[in-house]
Design a protein that fits this description.
The structure is a single chain. With about 200 residues, the chain is mainly α. The protein folds into two domains: about 60 residues, 3-methyladenine DNA Glycosylase II, Chain A, domain 3 (Orthogonal Bundle), CATH 1.10.15; about 90 residues, Alpha-Beta Plaits, CATH 3.30.70.20. Strand 2 and strand 3 form a beta hairpin. The strands form two sheets. It has a two-stranded antiparallel ribbon with strand order 1-4. The model has no long low-confidence stretch (mean pLDDT about 90). The chain contains six helices and four strands.
Amino acid sequence: MESPALADRIDAILPQTQCARCGYAACRPYADAVAAGAAPIDRCPPGGTATIAALARLTGHPATPLDPAYGREGPLTLARIDEGTCIGCTLCLDACPVDAIIGAPKRMHAVLAALCTGCELCVPPCPVDCIAFEPAERTWTPADAAAARARFNARNARIAGAERLSDRGAQPAASSAAARKPAIDAATARARARRAAAAR
């Protein structure tokens, strides 16, 4: 049986948080870059020292400390959405790489803690700053990584399928970010007005 390609073996070591802190869009592109010699092994804050050591053993590169330019190693944190502030814009749903957030337009969203990777990609698009990260009561395991990879791949396949339908002439989804912008702007203004009134 042929042994797995180096990029496959590197990808198997990475934590699959899909956080993009390494400077690549997800764990697999980073694995490809490391395998090609285009990226060093010290750019994965979620994996930290243990991942660097495992990558060093696999690749033969020295186990250098985590590059602080890409973040700091720390315990797993999970997203939590403030129910009273959420306006139901769904931008966090679009940003989550592993479908760990549930909700619907104009309805409060929630994070499925068992699925959250702590990637923090849901924070920048939130127009009302209603997402906070709190320490998890568990550690990230290889089983978590495998499940996160499967959800990430399934999400990408679903998105690619929707794009293929759109390319064939189907109407683009009404839930696109551009179509939702006026409603999001209005909801954001209402949320800020409520907060300002409550602070008086």
